[in-house]
Protein 1
Amino acid sequence: ILNVEQSPQSLHVQEGDSTNFTCSFPSSNFYALHWYRWETAKSPEALFVMTLNGDEKKKGRISATLNTKEGYSYLYIKGSQPEDSATYLCALVNYGQNFVFGPGTRLSVLP
Amino acid sequence: DAGVIQSPRHEVTEMGQEVTLRCKPISGHDYLFWYRQTMMRGLELLIYFNNNVPIDDSGMPEDRFSAKMPNASFSTLKIQPSEPRDSAVYFCASSLGRGLGSADQPQHFGDGTRLSIL
């Protein structure tokens, strides 16, 4: 059974602060890692798909890094804004094409 | 472009009744996924299809659940008979396939069906 963990479970930051959170996963049999942003009352929206060790992707103020050897990915948000408030999910895909989502990190950005 | 379309948005029914959830994937996407979201277990993959063929149904909780994809533009998830513990939000998602299946392609989610079994 694949176990994907995310930390912290939730966090509150002030508008303008930068923040980051972690997705941890078993490094063996890794194929891809997805990050999704999930706003309340909406559906998950894809942010990044990463496959290569050392990968770094960026979309506006949000970026992500990947370390497949040690089994973790970081998501960074620079200069958080209230509209960044959402749950951020990571999902692991292995060579068996199993998709497993982590429990998510709930971010609240206070104005 | 139209996204993934799910219907109904909300369903309230009594225990024992048959429930059918519907999904229309994005045109051209050859992978379709059904997920269930609950407070206790988060987002769980139930089953996924590639080119209308079920590939992995190991997440389907029990025989009361079944899913079909009769053509590239339509899929159903059926629960018969329904039970109160089936109450959850059910999401459908679709993606392109390339290389090693859909692993390196982002999934596009529908708005979900909120199911309540009384």
Protein 2
Amino acid sequence: DQQVKQNSPSLSVQEGRISILNCDYTNSMFDYFLWYKKYPAEGPTFLISISSIKDKNEDGRFTVFLNKSAKHLSLHIVPSQPGDSAVYFCAASARNTGNQFYFGTGTSLTVIP
Amino acid sequence: GAVVSQHPSWVICKSGTSVKIECRSLDFQATTMFWYRQFPKQSLMLMATSNEGSKATYEQGVEKDKFLINHASLTLSTLTVTSAHPEDSSFYICSARVGTGGLGNEKLFFGSGTQLSVL
């Protein structure tokens, strides 16, 4: 049962443009969300988080938007850089599940120079 | 951010042998660590939650006797794949939770992963 879904397995964007990565979830109890970046054969690296009391969180070139009614969040990267090329995972957790994190299947982002 | 060290990064073993993977929190104490498994082009799948000083909590479908987890100290958790078989070949990743569990301050920090290849 995939509670967190990333429906786009891959995305290609021109350098300097905006990258938008999407994530949907089914559990309305999720109240905390994270985005991770992962290179091959490495562990994921934390990027940015957002809690359900907010609808936007920004950190440099990375902005995460949360639409609770649609159970949807997105990660915007502006401007995109070649070094951003990686697999991006979203993760969600809920306090009533012991804060276990559920991960999406990932989106492979390629930024074309 | 917090540093989680995972060792070894790559291991090749013969079928039937056991392999131990270590996960250390280098600059903080982790009462809870998590072990994940990732197959190519798939999501990170939680295998078990490792709690310092107590038994690990395994996810449904994960064999406790095959994947032995020990969390003997606040900075070290180990995963032992016993009697490994080719179908156990995968990328194993540990993580530690940092934060008090309240909204907005909890993060997972990951080790660099271990690629296990069983011949």
Protein 3
Amino acid sequence: QKEVEQNSGPLSVPEGAIASLNCTYSDRGSQSFFWYRQYSGKSPELIMSIYSNGDKEDGRFTAQLNKASQYVSLLIRDSQPSDSATYLCAVNWDSWGKFQFGAGTQVVVTP
Amino acid sequence: GAVVSQHPSRVICKSGTSVKIECRSLDFQATTMFWYRQFPKQSLMLMATSNEGSKATYEQGVEKDKFLINHASLTLSTLTVTSAHPEDSSFYICSASRSSGGSETQYFGPGTRLLVL
């Protein structure tokens, strides 16, 4: 059974602070990893993808991947109230592009 | 970009009727599309994988005769909820898979909110 685990939260973050979200996965053979943001009542939107160990930065977002520890994280710098959403971690584990999603971490940025 | 549309965005129907939802990739071709369902405050649940020109692959517990999927072209997949009942009321979301750098990335449509009375 392939599993992706996330802390459900809510993660309360003061405006301007760094939000740190974590995700672990069970399939050591996984090669592609994704973070999606989902606002309440909306569909998920892609934030970042990461394929290699290390950090990948895109604007205020940084994804970190450690395949040895089967761990992927997302940092949101200078958090804004508009970042309040549920963040989904997804792992691609087959050639058809099928994903295993975590349950999501709810982030609440307080002014 | 990678834009995926869904139609309709919202539908209300009577119990026993059938509802068709369309999912289109607007600026890329998608060999594979996925259909998800999401109940309030719950996580995404994959219903089926739709491959162009072949039969869909359904997840365990999803009735293939109730949720008919057709992937007629590289840009269009449809989900038909047959004989809908109130328990089928949910948020249905499709995604289209796009190949990039040797990896597949899923891009989601805006979703269809179904209410069965």
Protein 4
Amino acid sequence: AQSVTQPDIHITVSEGASLELRCNYSYGATPYLFWYVQSPGQGLQLLLKYFSGDTLVQGIKGFEAEFKRSQSSFNLRKPSVHWSDAAEYFCAVGGAGGFKTIFGAGTRLFVKA
Amino acid sequence: DAGVIQSPRHEVTEMGQEVTLRCKPISGHDYLFWYRQTMMRGLELLIYFNNNVPIDDSGMPEDRFSAKMPNASFSTLKIQPSEPRDSAVYFCASSLDRGGNEKLFFGSGTQLSVL
């Protein structure tokens, strides 16, 4: 069965520092992978997605993610965090043929001045 | 486009009462999803529709929950009778007809509190 694991419940990063949020997935076929961000009181917004091709995917707001099949990972990165990046981040996996995107438990990002 | 529209934004009700949550998907999107978000269980898929037809309702917690999509521009999620453990944020999302590889567009959610 497909699943998504985000090992870190919360992470605190200083403004201007780099960020990496971890995501591991389990899926029996070629996965479709997503990162969403949720600001307080808001719905989820897509940051980026990976289907195929280049394993390094660029998204909005300066985020990128790298797909590593051998590690079943899809980690999200940003070289320099801004205070406005404080939010909850969700990794998700879906697949063709059936439509049931599964979300990880989320990682809450705190940004300190 | 105004995006996915949910109403109400907040709902406070007493145990045993009927609750109806509403959703208007983005025009042209063939898939509609209802999710529930809680601290304990995270984001759970309750049910999804394709072209107004329920495809998978295996995530609906029990018979007290029901969802309908009478037309392409409107869906409801009903809880009858409501219980305190139903308190959560309920999200509606929609997507184009591309299967699991298309991104989801989420509404702002309905914060439900059952007292």
